[in-house]
Amino acid sequence: MNENKTTTTFSLPSDLHTRLKAQGALEGTSMTRLLVEFVEDGLDERGANDQVRLKKFVALMERASA
Hints:
Layout: H1 14-27, H2 31-65
Helix pairs in contact: 1-2
């Protein structure tokens, strides 16, 4: 994780906030740390999915031009 920090404010539905706080308590970590992990994991997953889609697209284009 990048140690440079920026503070931002956003709104969460109260039920989601409660779930995050409870999960943090269960794991012995802060809600902020959980959110950072969730965002990092989500971005990594999207990137992985983008690579899979790109490879499929390239394969289709190669077949179409053959």
